[in-house]
Description:
Mean pLDDT is 83; it is low at 13-20. The protein has a two-stranded antiparallel sheet with strand order 1-2. The protein folds into two domains: 21-66; 82-219, no CATH class. The chain is built from seven helices and two strands, in the order αααββαααα. It is mainly α.
Amino acid sequence: MKFTRRATFAANALRHKRRLPFRGVRVNWDAVTAISTAASLAVSLVVLYVAVRALRYTANQIDDFRRESQTQHFIERAQQFNSPEFRATRRALADERLNRTKDGLKKLDVDDAPVEMFDELDFCNGLGILARHGELSAYDAWGEFSFWLFPFYADAEPLIKADQKDAPASWSNCVGLMEQVKMVDQEEDAGKQLDPKEEDIVSFYDSEIEENKSRSAVAKP
């Protein structure tokens, strides 16, 4: 019996000794909290970094798609502008507007304007719609079409204003495009094309006739 009690006492003492080193040790919960917070912050930063990279990648893809779309629309409009059908329209309008006897322009009757002028305004309006929706750069429109836009718009402006009296939104996209192209011309060419005089318009229409004559002659077999 004494042997059993001694054995039990010895076992209890051994367990007691094993626990001694951990007695009095306190957990620093502030440190634990700080470590946990730091770990959570690190994870959040990693997630944020990944999200930012994903957004940048998506934004780059959107920019690439937009540039490709702009290029495609630009090519399509340039092809339409230089097509035989539209060249014929431009030449016909030039013939209609030139007064050969006075070496100037005919007076524009806004109530009986040439059909071709409406066709060309439609083309300008189409360019303006693309520009308004970011599908055509104003710089591209200036670079490719300004030689035509400035003199044609100056000649057609009385018709535009007359139509806008009855319907203020008439040709609004063409007008908006011209505002953008004028800004580009001011920036890129010191505004040299901004105010075409009558002689400039006459010279332009003469060149339209001559150029389209030459192209028609080349196109014949």
